[in-house]
Design goal:
Mean pLDDT: 93
Helix content: 40-55%
CATH topology of the largest domain: Rossmann fold
Structural class: alpha/beta
Oligomer: single chain
Strand content: 5-15%
Radius of gyration: 21 Å
CATH superfamily of the largest domain: Glycogen Phosphorylase B
CATH class of the largest domain: Alpha Beta
Number of domains: 2
CATH architecture of the largest domain: 3-Layer(aba) Sandwich
Distance between the termini: 40 Å
Number of strands: 10
Largest sheet: 6 strands, parallel
Low-confidence stretches: 348-352
Shape: globular
Length: 352
Amino acid sequence: PALQRQGPFEYYGLAPLFRVRSLPNLDVVWLERRIPHWLYRLYTALYFGHAILWGLYAALVARRCSATLYYTRDTPVAFWLTRLGLPTAYEAHVIPQGRERQLLRQVAFRPSLSLVVVLNRFIQKRLIQEGFDPGKIQILPDGVDLSLFASLPGRKEARCRLGIDKGTPLVAYTGHLYQWKGVYTLVRAAQRMPEVMVLIVGGTPRDAERLGEFIRTENIGNVQMAGHVPPAHVPLYLAAASVLVLPNSAEATISRYYTSPLKMFEYMAAERPIVASDLPSLREVLRNGENALLVPPDDPHALAEGVRHLLADPTLAKRLAIQARRDVEAYTWEQRAKRIWAFICNGATGEQ
């Protein structure tokens, strides 16, 4: 809703460098939450049919622009763009399942597919197995806008601005509240470290209500939920933290192998010590004992002990935070865009 009110540039704190055209669409996700379980198979067919038709519509609208390259993260849109013979760059954050996976396999062999951008080597490997040309695949993790972190206040000043107690150690999490994000593990860890305050920032109203009910049921008194805040305001919350946590679950494939969390790069840019789940996806960027402390996933005790370790060893915490800040220089959106552009200019040959 906030994005609809403000528009993407204002919402993300960006300069309006290009024109955004919105296309009409049906909210089939809204329907998913309201249909009975026994109609779910019908819903999946409706969802796929809608995706195919809207993908065609979007591709036809895009074709009128006569662009040099058409860039999309949507598999059905990529299917139609390449079917129409338009030069296409496809960015994959997951491997689609079911019928969309069949579309993906057709995209792989289309001559008009110019470039494939993936978040990590695990997605790259899966796409190669699906038939994609390795020479067209570029591994580019997500990134961060460092300008948002250029003049962050100190921890005490940030807490003062946010009205947060200055004396209590603050453990912060930002982002969605999905089960696979590990927020329930974090809340359970909070029970084991009553001496700290855990601050959770983000989430949809529905997910926040569900997590809040769990917190109340478990009678956990040291967790605060700030709700959703605009992305441009997130750095202030990170600056207020003693420790930042990335407690992703190992139980979901997307979490274990495919994700490249925006919060990870924001945490690094904020120069605060990080405790994260020891997962293949996160080890693409984080290194235990060098720029973060990695702990076993889905283990509230291990997460709590990791936080306590950093709170008890400020020298280690500072060293990890400084190294993370140095490392994130390689993961800016500007660097990412330059690498994509260089790849395109080199004809997707893999030259850098």
